[in-house]
């Protein structure tokens, strides 16, 4: 990494930070178990992932993946329908892979987290009670038994890179586990509902859209406090609060 002109702070908060130094990403994480999951998941996933260069706790060094992200939440995606379909096909390969050896969150855990975050949003006046109540009702559709698959667990569009309508890499695997396939599809299309048909075309099968809408609401409700407490703004146009208000 000699001759690098600058260090770019990609993201930084009190749990972890990611720096870019040339073509190398340095992930500094206070939770080594989270890094353990990330490294093992990337080794198991049957789709392109970043190459691990070295690891010296608390730092993990990863090679940059080629291409550009599908887009950003709150902004129109520059990617073509074919690129979104390619993302759907990559997700299907992941979901068809053998399960990782560690479990995911249980249905009871997910329901309990929803209860707690909805209570916090109302008690602190962050969102109107009517918006929270309505989205909690929508989220209930997602909280049902499912057949577990290998999920990425945090499949935001900023984590999927494409080049010439081909997926070149999927990053940030610290939430990978056994889980609901429709959760991954929902997180991928959160705030970009117009691309759900493209993703499902690549995924190769239709899906219960009420469940996907449920996960859109669940994700937006439970993420709000974390985002606010870590310096992010879910009230920006096109982001989590707009997703919740669109269900009204």
From TrEMBL:
It comes from the Bacteria. Residues 41-214 form the Aminoglycoside phosphotransferase domain. Pfam families: APH. InterPro entries: AGP_Transferase, Aminoglycoside_PTrfase, Kinase-like_dom_sf. PANTHER family: AMINOGLYCOSIDE PHOSPHOTRANSFERASE DOMAIN-CONTAINING PROTEIN-RELATED (PTHR21310:SF40), AMINOGLYCOSIDE PHOSPHOTRANSFERASE-RELATED-RELATED (PTHR21310). This is Phosphotransferase. It comes from Actinoplanes flavus.
